[in-house]
């Protein structure tokens, strides 16, 4: 596999599809906002499937280069000052992009989202593989994601990955001049409701100190960023999916824990990124 320089770049994979085109356009906006180069990557075949130097390999390479040049030209038309690089690699697309997460500024992947069949969304696929195995920040961009000026919604959890996600949410909010919504969804188990059935106002009052304990130390580093709590009675997945309808992005830690931290279980992140209507950042804790 050819080595590529991914450090300090926003890396986005493309296959020329409408889903990938939407992801590359979004990635270009992010790269421009961070003042870093954009690297467009496409992957052909696998090393074991195509003999190097064969006519098939050369044909695939040429087709991939033409595809990348078309996509790069499209992006340069609306981002003339953005450095855009391209690379054609041989191998597994998921492996290539997972490898890029080790040192890239961000890796961006397009996903079929709500327009995909239920089976495709249920069983996941390429975007799931990258998000699951990534070693650094990843953004999953649904093909139907709308561009609007909504808030940065971040799932609140006291696990290290979620705290890292909260910090990233504030960084994005500072760059984009948007507010942060610190979101926590809860459900009272049916087995407990006979003995413990607070009103939404009472439960919010109980959980507010926990949310503040987690968010306020991070928010203190971003005095120029406005933030607010959102504590709602909802299933974590469908609550966040609903929030994604008006958010500019949703930011999640890659894994949470039990108890109060149940907000960000790994399964929650996976289901949110499969069903969200805006881009979803998946963040791992450092160290």
Describe this structure in words.
- The protein has a ten-stranded mixed beta sheet with strand order 3-2-1-4-5-10-9-6-7-8, with helices on both faces.
- It has helices at 18-34, 55-78, 93-100, 118-123, 126-133, 160-176, 190-193, 200-219, 236-243, 266-275; strands at 10-13, 38-44, 84-90, 106-111, 138-142, 152-155, 180-186, 227-233, 249-253, 280-283.
- The radius of gyration is 20 Å and the shape is elongated.
- It is built from ten helices and ten strands.
- Helix 3 (93-100) runs parallel beside helix 5 (126-133), helix 6 (160-176) crosses helix 8 (200-219) and helix 9 packs parallel to helix 10 (266-275).
- With 287 residues, it is of the alpha/beta class.
- It has two domains: 10-142, HUPs (Rossmann fold, 3-Layer(aba) Sandwich); 152-283, Rossmann fold (3-Layer(aba) Sandwich).
- Strand 1 (10-13), helix 1 (18-34) and strand 2 form a beta-alpha-beta unit.
Task: Write down how many β-strands occur, each being a DSSP E stretch of 2 or more residues.
Answer: 10
Q: Whole-Å distance between the termini?
A: 28 Å
Spatial strand arrangement across the major sheet: 3-2-1-4-5-10-9-6-7-8
Mean pLDDT equals 83
Q: Proportion of β residues?
A: 15-25%
Tally of helical runs: 10
CATH superfamily of the largest domain: HUPs
Shape, principal axes of CA atoms: elongated
From the helix content, strand content and strand pairing, which structural class follows?
alpha/beta
- Largest sheet, described in full? 10 strands, mixed
The radius of gyration computed from the alpha-carbon positions, rounded to a whole number of angstroms, is: 20 Å
CATH class assignment of the largest domain: Alpha Beta
CATH architecture of the largest domain: 3-Layer(aba) Sandwich
Counting structural domains, the number is 2
Flag low-confidence runs: 47-51, 113-124, 256-265
| Helix content bin | 40-55%
CATH topology description of the largest domain: Rossmann fold
């Amino acid at each position: 596999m050819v080595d590529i320089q991914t450090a300090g770049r926003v890396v986005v994979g493309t296959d020329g599809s409408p889903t990938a085109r939407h992801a590359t356009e979004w990635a270009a906006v992010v790269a421009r906002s961070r003042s870093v180069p954009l690297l467009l990557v496409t992957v052909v075949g696998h090393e074991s499937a195509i003999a190097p130097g064969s006519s098939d390999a050369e044909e695939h390479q040429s087709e991939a280069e033409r595809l990348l040049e078309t996509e790069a030209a499209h992006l340069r038309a609306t981002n003339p000052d953005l450095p855009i690089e391209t690379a054609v690699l041989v191998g597994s697309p998921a492996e290539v992009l997972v490898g890029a997460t080790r040192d890239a500024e961000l890796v961006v992947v397009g996903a079929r989202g709500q327009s995909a069949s239920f089976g495709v969304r249920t069983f996941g696929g390429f975007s799931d593989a990258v998000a699951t195995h990534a070693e650094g920040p990843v953004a999953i961009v649904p093909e139907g994601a709308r561009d609007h000026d909504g808030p940065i919604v971040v799932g609140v959890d006291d696990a290290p990955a979620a705290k890292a996600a909260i910090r990233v949410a504030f960084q994005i909010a500072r760059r984009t001049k948007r507010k942060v919504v610190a979101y926590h969804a809860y459900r009272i188990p049916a087995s407990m409701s006979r003995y413990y059935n607070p009103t939404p106002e009472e439960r919010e009052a109980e959980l507010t100190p926990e949310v503040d304990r987690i968010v306020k130390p991070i928010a203190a580093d971003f005095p120029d960023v406005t933030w607010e709590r959102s504590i709602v009675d909802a299933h974590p997945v469908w609550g966040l999916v609903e929030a994604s309808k008006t958010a500019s992005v949703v930011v999640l830690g890659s894994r949470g824990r039990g108890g109060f931290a149940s907000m960000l279980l790994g399964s929650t992140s996976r289901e949110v990124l499969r069903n969200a209507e805006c881009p979803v950042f998946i963040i791992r804790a450092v160290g």
